[in-house]
């Protein structure tokens, strides 16, 4: 059975609570095509004093529960953020904010946190949180200028996309690479399997 057919098997249809093309591409790597894609609308502002682990778990759960779900549907949602220590780096507001973020990441390690939530046919959310450690080389002003000018970092948590040009800045990575892209596949597959979604 093909991945697309498997995700449409009777009794378990997969809804992706995200419009991110990266997450759809990652699901395709494990042979899954959502039968439906929904755009959850929730406030993604971190709470005062909220730690990155709690933040991504809360947002992933909130996104999954914000989507209307039919009785035979399993909903998958994820949230990924970059953190330097306890500091959460959201999507840059503008080029100046992007430069600030790249300066923070330059020459040091940071954490990429993802929360993955699956709501099964029982309606109960199940969540896993994944942490990947990434280290950037020391970035020169010219490298920062070049990356900002590329436009790739805008709209990305932490101001960069590892699946793009920024991968050349990575000198060390410990953990899940797919997590840094936006969806940790090992944990996602385990959650979907437990929810009864047929996998290839």
Automatic annotation (TrEMBL):
Its EC number is 3.6.1.9. One of its GO terms (molecular function) is dTTP diphosphatase activity. This is dTTP/UTP pyrophosphatase. The active site is at 79 (proton acceptor). HAMAP family: Maf. It catalyses: UTP + H2O = UMP + diphosphate + H(+); dTTP + H2O = dTMP + diphosphate + H(+). GO terms for cellular component: cytoplasm. InterPro entries: ITPase-like_fam (IPR029001), Maf-like (IPR003697). It is found in: Cytoplasm. It is an enzyme of class 3 (hydrolase). Nucleoside triphosphate pyrophosphatase that hydrolyzes dTTP and UTP. May have a dual role in cell division arrest and in preventing the incorporation of modified nucleotides into cellular nucleic acids. Belongs to the Maf family. YhdE subfamily. The keyword Hydrolase applies. Its cofactor is a divalent metal cation. The keyword Metal-binding does not apply. It comes from Sphingopyxis lindanitolerans. One of its GO terms (biological process) is nucleotide metabolic process. The record marks 22, 80, 163 as: Important for substrate specificity. Keywords: Cytoplasm, Hydrolase, Nucleotide metabolism. SUPFAM superfamilies: ITPase-like. It comes from the Bacteria.
